[in-house]
Amino acid sequence: MATVNDNYLKLKAGYLFPEIARRVNAFIEANPEAQVIRLGIGDVTEPLPQACRDAMIKAVEDMGDRSSFKGYGPEQGYAWLREKIAAHDFQARGCDIDASEIFISDGSKCDCGNILDIFGDDNIIAVTDPVYPVYVDTNVMAGHTGDINEKGEYEGLVYLPVTAENNFTAEIPTQKVDLIYLCFPNNPTGATATKEHLKAWVDYARANGSIIFFDAAYEAFITDPSLPHSIYEIEGAKECAIEFRSFSKNAGFTGTRCALTVVPKNLIGKSKDGSNVELWKLWNRRQSTKFNGVSYIVQRGAEAVYSEEGQAQTKALISFYLENAKIIREKLTEAGLAVYGGENAPYVWVKTSAGLTSWDFFDKLLQTCNVVGTPGSGFGAAGEGYFRISAFNSRDNVNEAMRRILDKFK
Ligand code: MLT
């Protein structure tokens, strides 16, 4: 009989968000009249920007005409999109990133997992705790960890706790690690990183030959002008960091799918025989072998984000969700809860009340307010006692959810 990848058997039963959906569906089945408001998964709710829709409609027309029809595109993405990204997202912020270092993909979640294909199995890996579960689970699947212990931590991973006590800022490890996952603005805590904090990581990575996986999926939510949007704003980061970005949260592409990964050309790793290998070459090889690129239509939609109208429309979308986050922060504070994040991020991180565990708080909110959030412990052991509320919803739903919470908690 064929054998399976036993590493999958080490994983906690379900991925966090499907597990939440399962519990919510069971609740709705038992309480069909309940008007449940979902502020759990960070999925956008507002329509695609008009500029993106127009560009995609035009692209569909291109596909209907032999002279403008497109078959397979470049696996790395079309040059016209990569050039706009390089100019707007990086060069305009002083980052020396070339279009050829940008790889277009169908999502940051996939890229964060797929990137492990080009790294060895003997790296020491550090994650913050709490953390976006994909970073941990993909390493478990790849066999980079041992079993899960009773604390909910996988043997072999280095966990860097981020809690209110350290102001949600992980300490730079004292031991040597090879791969480090950082996410700013942070999912789930909504915390941001200053240039000084990122510089400390870049200095550490360069001194130790480590690679930083920098997840900037939420960079568009940064309103504080002093905060960096890209790790490449830090000197030396091109020698030690891969950055992931997405159109999901800034332009509402969660269902449309488009993202990008930056692999600088001078980034190197070591092969078993001790020689230096350019990571760009390996990622390029990986993508051209296992991926056929994002559809032409979707890339045209993403390109429209960089037009004048696209910029104005995406800014308006982000401001809308940030206003939701502000309302959530204010109302939860009024309800007597301690809140963090939500100022330069679409996530509000809440301390659960009266010593409730994260899942107790989840049940209480679901049962008494019919509001869904995400239990902090689902993001890691140090998330226990916290709860994440997503600002991705309509204004009416956010207002109604907060009204119910104030009613029950105040
Ligand atoms: C979340 O809720 O954390 C997001 O949905 C993560 C993601 O974009 O995959």
From TrEMBL:
UniProt EC number: 2.6.1.83
Organism domain of life: Bacteria
CDD domains according to UniProt: AAT_like
Residues given in the record as pyridoxal 5'-phosphate binding sites: Y72, S108, K109, Y132, N187, Y218, S246, F247, S248, R257, N292
Residue numbers bearing the N6-(pyridoxal phosphate)lysine modification: K249
Binding annotation for substrate: Y15, G42, K109, Y132, N187, N292, R388
Record SUPFAM superfamilies: PLP-dependent transferases
Top EC class for this record: transferase
Cofactor: pyridoxal 5'-phosphate
PANTHER family: AMINOTRANSFERASE
Stated name of the protein: LL-diaminopimelate aminotransferase
Organism: Pseudanabaena yagii GIHE-NHR1
